[in-house]
Amino acid sequence: MDSAPSLVAPGYWDDACRHLVKRDRVMKNLIPRFGEARLQSRGDAFTTLARSIVGQQISVKSAQAVWGRFIALSVDPTAPLTPDWLQGLAIDSMRAAGLSARKVDYLRDLANHFLERSVHETDWLSMDDEAIIEELVAIRGIGRWTAEMFLIFHLMRPNVLPLDDVGLIKGISLNYFSGEPVSRAEAREVGDAWAPFRSVATWYIWRSLDPLPVEY
After folding, report:
1. Cα gap 168→109, rounded to integer Å
2. Which of 53, 81, 86, 193 could be 111's S-S partner, Cβ–Cβ 3.0 to 4.6 Å?
3. What's the whole-number average pLDDT of the chain?
4. Which intervals hold domain HhH-GPD (predicted)?
5. Under 8 Å CB-to-CB from 147, ≥6 apart: which residues?
6. What average pLDDT does the segment 35-41 reach?
7. Dist CA 51 CA 58 (whole Å)
8. Second-level CATH architecture of 13-40+160-209
């Protein structure tokens, strides 16, 4: 496996922060709390999707713990994952790292899609968000939420609003509705006001719940 890629932040981040601070009362208070912290991409599509699968339906802290045990199965845990490496892992070893049987199946299917070149990685930069989501959800274990995490954390698309994300809904409730329950329509209305930088605002809403930066 090649050496691990460096984390890269999106070039639009500072402009997005200035835009949001001017237009949103919550963002005006929230964004300065986190200083120079930024969304960062690992630059590796396969690793990003694998981390998204591992992180499904568990907390950020739990996901990082499981991921740490999972990559420790590698001879070089600092190297990025490859489909070949994952396919060569024993299922028992993956389960011992804390992965459910279902997530093991999902990760192996993801590896198959990359090995068989049934995902069009070289075309993603020219495809719109919905077209990429449609391609990714054809992979077992990747629903709309996981595809949206990929758009945010790998392709660093600036205007994604992941309404299926529990943390986003909770954060909108706490920051905009004094903790009262929030409907999907109400969350969408708040998020639409963040355009064209809904991904950035979402990232700061996540930070309001957990200062530990989310990484996929």
Report:
1. 28
2. 86
3. 90
4. 54-210
5. 132, 133, 136, 137
6. 86
7. 12
8. Orthogonal Bundle (1.10)
What residues have CB less than 8 Å from 166, skipping those under 6 apart?
A: none
Place of tokens 């090649």: 2
pTM of the predicted protein model: 0.82
DSSP 41: B
Residue-wise pLDDT for 133-187, tens only, equals 999 999 999 999 989 989 998 999 999 999 999 999 999 999 999 999 999 999 9
Sketch the domain layout of the chain as residue ranges: 13-40+160-209, 45-153
Residue 200 amino acid letter: V
Nearest CA to 144 out of 158, 130, 155, 125 is that of: 130
Looking at residue 8, the DSSP 8-state letter turns out to be: B
- Please give the CATH number for the structural domain made up of 45-153: 1.10.340.30
Q: What is the pLDDT of residues 106-135, one digit of tens each?
A: 999 999 999 998 888 889 999 999 999 999
Distance separating alpha carbons of residues 152 and 161, to the nearest angstrom? 9
Within 8 A by CB and 6+ apart from 181, the residues are 173
Instruction: Tell me the C-alpha to C-alpha distance, in Å, between residue 109 and each of 13, 50, 84.
Output: 34, 10, 12
Paired strand residues for 41: 8
* 148 Cα distance to chain centroid: 7
Q: Are 167 and 209 in contact (CB under 8 A)?
A: yes
In this structure, which amino acid lies at residue 203? W
